[in-house]
């Protein structure tokens, strides 16, 4: 048996640059980081290409080794292209990166495709395998190659998790197919076997070896995988049972993909504090008196303390509001409130505090809804708080994280 050579894997940790030089240093650091990542993928592509060529020329190799090398080569070339595109896009490298408002993660499971009837039958000694690649930014995740079931369906049972997503993210899902001879061939069979047209060297690549810092010129094989079609996954696709195909390369798959898309975690990138006046309600839900408090919005939670130092000394807040349990919209200057520059948050508080049971996060009957009247000191503070809270609720709503709409 021919052992597939270990594909070169490197994990680099790039030290933070001194930011005293300003934006120019940050720009150069980004460029060199992307170039290092590109060189790493070039080494992986070369190693995978050598392994694939060795397997094809050996009489002792089997199709499992060949399809594994093909998969690694495909994943490396997909990521290489993403990194090169990012280097070429000056807008990502030469302008100041905006501070993100939200970071989230999603999981894709039970991914299904339906195959159409084939015009040409696959030879009896060959089999067709399918692979799904999910790409975001410069990260590519691929599934294991699978065959269609007896009902001409593709069922990917793997769970794919994608993290560190912006609030306006786009995931690209691309389905690939490959036909491989699954029967053993002797020396004569190897010689008589017709080489696939796509197995020719592509144009030469130039990169710096991450081990020796030597500039290398190489030619690598092109993977035999063929693209069947691409799908685009965005936040607007949440809750949809079918995702339409954006571009179809081979007419062998129906123009949609089925998948369960679950939102694992969504974290707002908020960090804002200031004094605010909290209106205390009596038993009849009338504002009894006002009391000045220290208010902090950290990620998805609004904390209200008696004094600023209470947060520093980790004292329990007077009020703790999870914005995911807020009932939108945010009410500004309500008629029942005599003070100007006031706004109201309606929050669902669990009846059983401290529970981690999922039903208490989704069932409305398990919550008690309370209104909190907040009053800003001046017009500027009022605008800052209301704009920030409106934006936070809108983003959480886009990701379907608001429990009570």
Tell me about this structure.
The chain has 405 residues and is an alpha+beta fold. It is 24% helix and 34% strand. The chain is built from seven helices and 18 strands. The strands form three sheets. Strands 1, 2, 3, 4, 5, 6, 9, 10 and 11 form a nine-stranded antiparallel beta sheet that branches. Helix 1 packs antiparallel against helix 2. The longest helix has 34 residues.
List keywords for this structure.
405 residues, single chain, alpha+beta, nine-stranded antiparallel sheet, disordered N terminus
Query: Structural class per helix/strand content?
Result: alpha+beta
Supply Rg.
Answer: 28 Å
Task: Indicate the low-confidence ranges by residue numbers.
Answer: 1-21, 93-98, 187-200
Output mean pLDDT. 80
Percent of residues in β-strands:
25-35%
Count of distinct strands: 18
Helix/strand order: HHHEEEEEEHEEEEEEEEHEEEHEH
Largest sheet: 9 strands, antiparallel
| First and last CA, distance | 60 Å
Principal-axes geometry comes out as: elongated
Task: Please bin the fraction of helical residues.
Answer: 10-25%
H/I helix tally: 7
Briefly, what is this?
24% of the residues lie in helices and 34% in strands. By secondary structure, it is an alpha+beta fold. The longest helix is centred in the first third of the chain and has 34 residues, at 23-56.
What topology emerges from the helices and strands here?
Blueprint: H1 23-56, H2 63-88, H3 90-93, E1 102-114, E2 126-136, E3 139-142, E4 153-156, E5 160-165, E6 170-181, H4 187-192, E7 205-208, E8 215-218, E9 226-234, E10 242-248, E11 256-268, E12 271-281, E13 287-298, E14 301-305, H5 308-312, E15 319-322, E16 331-332, E17 342-350, H6 359-362, E18 367-375, H7 379-398
